[in-house]
Amino acid sequence: MRLRILPRNEQFFDLFDAAATNVVQGARYLHEMVENFDRAEELHKLIEETEHEGDITTHEIMERLNVTFVTPIDAEDIRDLAKTLDDVLDYIEATADRMILYDVGKPASYMADMVRILELAASEIVKVVGGLHDLKRPRRLLDHCIEINRLENDGDRVSRRALAELFRTATPMDAIKWKEIYEHVEMAIDKCEDIANIIESVVVKYA
Amino acid sequence: MRLRILPRNEQFFDLFDAAATNVVQGARYLHEMVENFDRAEELHKLIEETEHEGDITTHEIMERLNVTFVTPIDAEDIRDLAKTLDDVLDYIEATADRMILYDVGKPASYMADMVRILELAASEIVKVVGGLHDLKRPRRLLDHCIEINRLENDGDRVSRRALAELFRTATPMDAIKWKEIYEHVEMAIDKCEDIANIIESVVVKYA
Amino acid sequence: MRLRILPRNEQFFDLFDAAATNVVQGARYLHEMVENFDRAEELHKLIEETEHEGDITTHEIMERLNVTFVTPIDAEDIRDLAKTLDDVLDYIEATADRMILYDVGKPASYMADMVRILELAASEIVKVVGGLHDLKRPRRLLDHCIEINRLENDGDRVSRRALAELFRTATPMDAIKWKEIYEHVEMAIDKCEDIANIIESVVVKYA
């Protein structure tokens, strides 16, 4: 009996690893897009493909959930986690899409700062999600959760300054556009924090 | 014993049916308001009345919850569902209210597109919520959940284009106003998706 | 055994009392800042300190949660409650920070109205959280939850009017700035309502 349950657990966690790796890939493309805005169209395409990959993984997790009776962690936590990993990529894609759609021109340096923070948070997500394989040793996993919280605070601070500069220097229309774009990066980072919070609560329940 | 529990279940589900029917009514009025903006004031009044009806139903569900020991689905899911159905109508009313309050003039065709999607999503909500009466046969119910997810994606796509056009053609002040209004329609559609997600998780637990 | 568990319960509830008292302190400083905008910098500092105090309390709740096996209410509800109390202060601090950072000048009277509502909602939070000590008598506690809901509706109404006036009278850039600030006050009030909702659901489970 136990032998049959254990591999099943691993399948869920492997899918989460794939989803997290995909998120960090999307964040990397977005960072590259912001730093090399002349290649924006090409990188936007890559982000769209990454997001599509992510949708497939999410779907796979949900399908597996519907046919699994004994899940390694609560079914609701699996759903939440899959959904929130998906959300990060959705916001990454939406950010890239808006930069092109609104025809904003080269991003200010604050945008690169924010996207760098998002990429760092996404890298922590890979570690946090990987930690699910060994819930018996949660110390490290919780350290990565704390690091994600710190990054979210950083992102918040940078985005406040970015908006203040925008309001001082841009036209009202550009202020509207960039505010919308900054907010999407912030939401992507917030979703990374939500993932950390879900995993923290899983640790509290199972460790 | 069983005979006493079953009717009680149905009472909750009947109240949810009433709440969902009310949501679709509100969405229809909003659609009509956007298509016939010269009747805006009159339709806004009807939407306010519909929202008030919804509040009464929500209140009834909550009151019943407080005096019921054995609920047909988890008490927390009942609360969440009632709350989120209420949220959809709140956003519908807030959208109508803002169009009048901000004195925006006749809506662009994108607004009609978005409100049409909201009306379709609301119609699916009626079906999804109706499916609670027969959780043993979840296949159909899940199909409607998928359709709501598809509609939410549609809404997202339309709203991106609507904003892009707005930023190309409107004054900054009109851009601010309409962005706010579009976002409220989007949030109403998002809440429809949240309802689908809650019901999906109920199905996972009970079916 | 019972003697050992009871004090442990009280420790959690005492920490929540401290967190709620801190929230109302932050709300009072924000109100004072808006009414006496020439002292904005000084009051912003006090709000930052209050927010920092709040972080310490939140951290203490989470740490205690990690070493407690039998919690007086569900561990997840404790986490949610601590997190949401923290969120209120975060939004209060973010509101104060933005007013300074965006160099907005003296707030319109609507801002004072909104912050007054936030202060009232925060005072209700103290009572609602205090009610956790005696979950056996939930009637009063639920009345305070209803009052918070009423205040949230009030805040919503005032903020709609505030925006309408802003769009009639301000420059596009000032409209963008103040809209952002009003939204932060609204989110602080929304989080007060979330706290009421969490506690209502705790009552449903335990009373």
Describe this structure in words.
3 copies of one chain form a homotrimer. Chain A is mainly alpha-helical and 207 residues long. Helix content of chain A is 86%, strand content 0%. Chain A starts with a helix and ends with a helix. The N terminus of chain A is likely disordered. Chains A and B meet through α3 and α6 of A and α5 and α6 of B.
CATH H-level homologous superfamily name of chain A: Phosphate transport system protein phou homolog 2, domain 2
Strand content of chain A: under 5%
Mean pLDDT of chain A: 92
Main interface pair? A-B, 18 and 16 residues
Q: What fold name goes in the CATH topology slot of chain A?
A: Methane Monooxygenase Hydroxylase, Chain G, domain 1
Summed up, the helix count of chain A is 6
The helix/strand order of chain A is HHHHHH
Secondary-structure content class of chain A: mainly alpha
Largest sheet of chain A, described in full?
none
Q: Please tell me what the overall shape of chain A is.
A: globular
* Overall CATH class of chain A: Mainly Alpha
Query: What is the chains' assembly state?
Result: homotrimer
CATH architecture of chain A: Up-down Bundle
Number of domains of chain A: 1
Which bin fits the share of residues in helices of chain A?
Answer: over 70%
From the N-terminal CA to the C-terminal CA of chain A, the straight-line distance is 22 Å
Q: What's the count of strands of chain A? A: 0
Determine Rg of chain A (CA atoms, Å): 18 Å
Outline the low-pLDDT stretches of chain A: 1-6
